[in-house]
Structures are given as structure tokens and as C-alpha cells.
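Please check this one:

***
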Amino acid sequence: MSVHPDLHQHYVWACQSTGQPENPLIACVLQEADKNHITRWTKGVTLKIAGNNHLVPVQRVTDDDFQVLASVLHNAVFVTGLDLRCNVLTDAGAKHMATFLQDNSALRYLNLMFNDIGTSGAELIAGALHRNETLLHLRMTGNKIGNKGGMFFASMLQMNSTLEKLDLGDCDMGPQCLIAIATALTHNKSIKAINLNRPLLYSHEEETTVHVSLMLKTNSSLVELHLGKHDMKNFGVEQLCEALYKNSSLRYLDLSCNKITCDGVKFLGELLKQNQALEILDLSANCIEDAGAIYLSEALALYNRTLRALSIVSSNIKGKGLVALSGAMKTNTELSHIYIWGNKFDEATCMAFSELIQMGRLKPDCTDVEPYEVDGHVHLAELSHGLQKHYYWTPSCEVVMSKDANASLAIAAVSEY
């Protein structure tokens, strides 16, 4: 089967033998994989059985559907990725997935985002990863595993030495498991990227940020860290910055959708004057205002030559701050990507960024604005570009190759790409 893959035929036989009706979505994807196997299977193939795919018949994958599929893929060593996002897998399906992960020695990428997996399902999947030595990238985004489910993944991180990317964003985790995960990462040497976006926090003391900061002081393997929607304030940013003076590995820091003001950005500006590791900084949807933008522009113009991408989308910045950042780009040639939409553009801002684009200093693919002229006045229109435009969805009509739009510039690509 690994030499001459015929996934669809095996799926038909498996459905007939178990009495399970064929799922049209699975059948369509397997037929397409069989058709393309000559050029693709030797490098490994990712089966994209996403329940939000509008170009093929969509009957979302159930627990019973996946049980049959798992039996088909048991010996398919050329299948190295499995995308099951936006289906209806529950804890029962997670049990089948755990068995599959224990027996499978080929899968490197698994996307389970936005299914219906809960705490017991998280326990089973995390338990399977205690022994799995193949999987590199796991996305659990949007499954409501809760604080207890997150604790099982924290325990897994103490045992697993293979997993490189773990996405636990929007999983309703609480402060206890965030602290446990941060503690586990003080010893885990394999995780390169972790997403902890949107936990459920009930305290204003920012204990979780303090523990993440302590972890960053000792962790030398983490490259990408997402702390969006953490209700983080200036105190939390100060703690992170103190840790990052001693950290030389983190290259992508996501602090979007927090409560950071210009005073917090001042700490980041001072950090950028000395830090020689950060390449991507996401400050979208904070309230950094002109003063914060000026702090950043001073650091970028005079000191920092490492940062390559900056997002300040919807950060309540006006013309003075935006013009200052455009001026920094004229002297800092390393900063190649900047995203500014959602701020308050005046004519000076429009002129400044139009000039950067026309002179070739800022490439159209590296920003989210495009200049146009009406009655002799320059304006800026929005472009669909950004650091994580395709975090929750992937366009069905095209293959998105740009790392700038999908994730990090810096982290090494794994099986998802």
C-alpha cells in the first residue's frame, strides 16, 4: 500500500466491511490524493479533509467516519499530514485519534481546530503524545478542552521530546494550566512555537505573564510565542521585556489584542535597542497611540537592525506616530514588513507611505495599504495582507505560500507547509 497507494478503494472496502456509509468529503479527498500520488507521495502528502471546504461536497467528518479513515491510513506511510479542521469530532473521535497516534509512525502534522473535543478527549490525545515520536505540529485551536484539558497537555510537554509546534489558542484554558505549561517549557527543549491565545483569566494580577517571563529567562529553544487576548497591561509587558534581555532565541512575539498603552511600548522600545533576536512583533489592537509609535520609531531608526516585521493594526495611532515610523523605515533597511491599517490616517501619513511604496522601499506584498489618488489627494486603501491573515481559514481558491501571511518569517517550516 505504501508503494502503490489506492486510498479511495481501501476506504470503500473499509466502509463496506464495517457497514459505515461513505462520507462524500473523505471519498473526494482520497480520490484526489490517489490521482496526484505519482508526483507527491514520495515527499509525503497532507490530506485536507476540512469541514469548511466549499469546493467539494461537504458532509462533516463524524467520530465513526474517522474510525474508518484511521483504519485506511494505518499503513499509509506517505500520508504525513492530516487536516480535520471544522468537523464534528467529539471525545469519542479523540479516542480513535489517540489510538491512531500511538500506532502511526508517519504523521507529522495534525490539525483538529474547531471540532467538539473536550476535556476527556484532550486527556486521550495528550496521553498518546507521551509515546508518539513522530508528530511535529498539533493544532487544537477552538476545542473547549478547558483548564483541566490544558493540564494534560502541560504534563505531555514534560514527556514528549518531538513536538515542535503546539496551538492551544481559544481553548478556554485557565491560569493554572498556563502556569503549568510555562513551567514545563522551562525544561522542554523541543517546542519551537506555542500559541496560548485567549485564555479565560479571572485575575488582574497578571500571574500568568510573570510565569511566562520566568520561563523565557531560561528557555533557549522557543522561537514563536503567541500571547494574544491575555488582558495584558503595561506591567506584564515590563516583565516580558526584562526576560527578553536575557533571551536570544525568541524571534516572533505576538502581543495582539491586549491592553498595552504607550507606557508599555516604551519598555518594548528600550528592549529593541538591545535585543538582537526578535524578528516579528505583533502589537495589533492595543492602544499604543502616537507616543508609543514614536518610541518604536526611535529604536528602529537608531538602534535595532534585527526586526523584520511589525504589526500595529488598529492601535489608535494618528499621523504623527505613523509618519515617524515611515521615517524610521528610510534609515532602517532591515524592517521590510509593516502593517498599519485601522489607524487614523491624515494626508501626511498617506503621502509618507505612498512615497515608501513608490520608491521601492516598501513592497506591496509587505504591507496592508495601497496608495491611490483622487482629485490630486493621495489616500490609502486596505490590502488583504498581514502576519496571520490565514490563521483561522485557508482560501479554497488558491494555495497561500506567503509565510508573511500565514505565520512566522523565522521559524523553520514543518509538515504543514
Summary: Confidence is low (pLDDT under 50) at residues 407-417. The radius of gyration is 23 Å. The longest strand covers residues 369-374.
